[in-house]
Amino acid sequence: MENKHFGLYVKTLREQRASYWHSWTQEYLAEKADIEPDQVARIEQGRVKKLLPYLEGLAMAFGLNELQKVEFWALAGYNYRPSQLDISKQRIYDLLEQLYFPASARTPVWDFIAFNCYHEVLWGYTPENIALLNEHPGPNLLRVLFDNEFRKSQTRHLTDNDLRFAVAIFRTISFRYITTERYDEVVQYMSEHYPLFEHTWRDVDRNPPDIEMLQTPINKVRHDVFQEIEFMSLHIPPRYVGEEVDISIYVPLSIDKYRELREFTEDYVKDTGQRVRKFRDQPLLSRNQ
User: Fold this and answer.
1) Least confident of 123-127, 228-232, 282-286
2) Of 13, 162, 221, 271, which is least packed with CB atoms within 10 Å of its CB?
3) Which secondary structure element, helix H or strand E, spans residue 229, and what is its range?
């Protein structure tokens, strides 16, 4: 089995550094990676079958960080688990604070860990209903979707079909966690307090929606102040933040329209000092919980 794609990748990295700095010959790369020059040539030609012994040396030579190593190992056909990837709440807060688009962090059972100020302003949250999120059973997105206190302040109207889709997605994402106490607590609370949730849950049982057909990366938000803004909905891959956290980002398709939201949000931050909203001090969800 040849590894021509990986070989081309190594050659491109070497030539890229040659164009940015001084000349990176195969001999120079071999010296930095502590391998033989003829092995560098063989790797670049895709003639090395077992690449694992050379990956750490090449990664060190190219100065790859932990996240880049994940991609590098994957291209060679191996798995790499970052040794320094600390999925702490503080790391999540710091990441959200740096994002200049609406973004939120949730567990697989949709408990909010935090969201940034742009997310808070975009979806029309108020201090009053945000305070409700910290009350029992905690900051869960399902409450936002089905509780009238949240629905009337939302910047978009949710149809019955939207709610069916949301419940189906929730069940798909949280499927691996149905044995946890937290999953049982959330679903039981929602069933007891929100008849619409119970009805929607049973409706999904009877007639599951086609998630693939309904899912779309484009999200249109109608805001009372900013009118309609279109976003591309994206997720940070699990290898960056772990399986127990989902960070969703809404990237605006029109920067000009989004600039109004940015300016409004900056004024909001000056008044409140709140750039990242943090929620109940509970541990990140674990399948062993």
Assistant:
1) 282-286
2) 271
3) strand 227-235
